[in-house]
Amino acid sequence: MISSASTFADWTELYKKIVFWEAELEKSTDPGMNEILKMQQNEANNSFSKFIISNYLDWLRPDNKNKPLLSPALFTQKILPHIGSNRPLFFILIDNLRYDQWKTISAELSGLYRIIEEDLYFSILPTSTQFSRNSIFSGLMPSTISELLPDLWINDDEEEGKNNSEEELFKDQLKRKGLNYKWSYNKISSSLEGKKVNERVRSMLENDINILVFNFVDMLSHARTEISMIRDLANDEPAYRSLTRSWFLHSSLFELLKTLASHPVKVVFSTDHGTIRVQNPIKIIGDRKTSPNLRYKMGRNLDYDPKKVFELTNPEKAMLPKTNLSSRYIFAMNQDFLVYQNNFNYYASYYKDTFQHGGISMQEIMIPIAYLEPV
């Protein structure tokens, strides 16, 4: 399947199979089978990176009908069509949720909900919250946001929070589409915030659509990088999935879903991008204005081996904003990560085996979208 995959549909089927076998082999006591799957996954990611490099820019052409569902079209194609029939829609976006983590969570919902539709869609590049999530809520590509709504776009080299305008971006998307819905937007980054949202369930049931953004999994991946105890708790993919499951079972989100299951509601689950455990440091040189992300860099004075990254010397072709006329983007592929040559060995060792996002891999780009209804 890896050698013959040539379309985005081939790749989604292939990735679903890999995730299925990951879960199956977790039950096995034979480490040899796991090693074979890891080697296949590595081979698949190398081929997938080449596939993205060959096709990505072509998918962004407005006249191209043969492309996967991308971040800006998520609301139009998968969420807004479910609004109506006097049943409130709850759109739950868990930041940084991989497909394997979704499968772990969704297994806990059986008995409460039935999955009517489940699929993978493709995150835009860079696969980071600033780009993919703003694109989802605006229904626009990043360069278009920065041109049409400059007050709502914060550049990579600016200090401000990059995702503080999602509510305004969604409001603008509805306005452009001429849609007049009663809706709410909630971002939950702590259990206290989650409890406060759950106390407002009655009023939310009167809305057409309620958007809930949960930041826990993203916070977990960053904490895992910074805190050695969390690193030990989630030292590989099975442990990372287990930690995600444990959070979910004790979260305000699960409480909310149990409450909603007794009401005539619709639920859409999704995410903005996934994440990958990085292994191979790639040496680069950049100036102080270069973006800090380990899986992609945007800047003007970048020096790197072009054979080891996907380079975009014309960001406008990928509909990405640039802060300078000579700005370019480079993306790490598979399990690579980008490290400056200053203190290279220290940072290469520090970040190895951490979960990162922003680059090109099956885990970061192919992400879940699911439509559920109470049983």
Provide a quick synopsis of the model.
With 375 residues, the chain is an alpha/beta fold. Helix content is 41%, strand content 18%. The chain has helices at 8-26, 31-59, 74-79, 99-107, 129-138, 142-148, 166-177, 191-198, 201-204, 216-226, 228-233, 237-249, 252-260, 344-351, 362-365; strands at residues 89-94, 113-122, 183-188, 209-214, 266-270, 276-277, 280-284, 296-299, 310-312, 328-331, 336-340, 355-356, 366-374.
Q: What can you see in these coordinates?
A:
It is built from 15 helices and 13 strands. It is of the alpha/beta class and 375 residues long. The protein has three domains: 8-59; 71-276 and 361-374, Alkaline Phosphatase, subunit A, CATH 3.40.720.10; 277-355, no CATH class. Strands 2-13-5-1-4-3 form a six-stranded mixed beta sheet. The protein has a three-stranded antiparallel beta sheet with strand order 8-10-9, with no helix packed on it. α1 runs antiparallel to α2, α4 packs across α12 and α8 packs parallel to α13 (252-260). It is globular and about 55 Å long. The two termini are 36 Å apart.
Secondary structure layout plus pairing:
Elements: H1 8-26, H2 31-59, H3 74-79, E1 89-94, H4 99-107, E2 113-122, H5 129-138, H6 142-148, H7 166-177, E3 183-188, H8 191-198, H9 201-204, E4 209-214, H10 216-226, H11 228-233, H12 237-249, H13 252-260, E5 266-270, E6 276-277, E7 280-284, E8 296-299, E9 310-312, E10 328-331, E11 336-340, H14 344-351, E12 355-356, H15 362-365, E13 366-374
Parallel strand pairs: 1-4, 1-5, 3-4, 7-11
Antiparallel strand pairs: 2-13, 5-13, 6-12, 8-10, 9-10
Helix pairs in contact: 1-2, 4-12, 5-7, 8-13
